[in-house]
């Protein structure tokens, strides 16, 4: 972040608060909204009434991907996350167990929250890209409910599942409100002397990206730093690498998640499900209706078939694409089930399927046998700010709720993987600005 950005953002944030205070009592949009019959999430519900109308969210007119400074103060920052996790652990009476599992490169705590005693392990991460923030709030909603509810459903989940969440797993990027973490190549080579003199990793940012200037504070796309070999240590000959090659665990943040994943795999035999919560461009439209924006894209496929991919053959016996497809169908069905009441939840599409990204967390953990689910809700902070925070957090929550219910009950195994292939593909990005051009090109696949 340039020194100029933060003061501007603070000013805008203040203005937004004023706007909400002055307009909230006049328009009262929440009153006109149809009832939503899911158990209400405690943590973010109070902000819902301050959000714009669904009609404004859905109507695809002009849309800009040009990065700009927008208010984000309603999202949970790192300090607030620590306080909220502490509160949830306390009021749950220990049902939710919060633990510091590591630190970011700049020393910020990375926490995990564990709930349930079931035999199926589910790992959920959010904010690996620090400008993609709704996943963290959806996780807090989920933990808050699951930690305290005495409903039959919550009890069933806690008996069948062991859920481990690592919200805001890239806290340095999150505090800078940018995609990359805060780590220089010099720091990497100091830690791994065998890499001295080699070219920096291909996913090292030193220029401008999504409106953020990395020249004075370089960083990495942490979501290209995973490797399906969970014991991999960095080797000079594997640099600079490329998007179709595995990563290296050179970022402290990916290492923390890898360590938690390995611990769960050792404890449970395998990690049943891995979910990673992201945002994509703001201006994708529905394939059959260019007048409506996509609310959420999902996916369960991140790598080519390992059976026929040189170097990945040994992962083929564990890789289970059909299970990932079933998990995604559960997400899709849950959101379609809400679409009658609130059409915004029906605009769900399939994320591009022609990817081979073994350096992503999802790709690496899928190769280790986990069912995998990618959430990509609409609009990163540089294009939407917090404007649709509540409804997008709700969309993530509904998807997670449906998927976890299906895993807890075992119903997931009855879902048809072919239904996944029938989910409509994402339509085009109709946005304007340089970033829209990038999203329309092949770079799209690397920027979400
Ligand atoms: Zn992302």
Automatic annotation (TrEMBL):
InterPro entries: Peptidase_M14. Residues 71-448 form the Peptidase M14 domain. GO terms for biological process: proteolysis. GO terms for molecular function: metallocarboxypeptidase activity; zinc ion binding. PANTHER family: PROTEASE FAMILY M14 CARBOXYPEPTIDASE A,B, SLL0236 PROTEIN. Keywords: Carboxypeptidase, Hydrolase, Metalloprotease, Protease, Signal, Zinc. This is Zinc carboxypeptidase. Belongs to the peptidase M14 family. The keyword Signal applies. Residues 1-30 form the signal peptide. Its cofactor is Zn(2+). It holds the Pfam family Peptidase_M14.
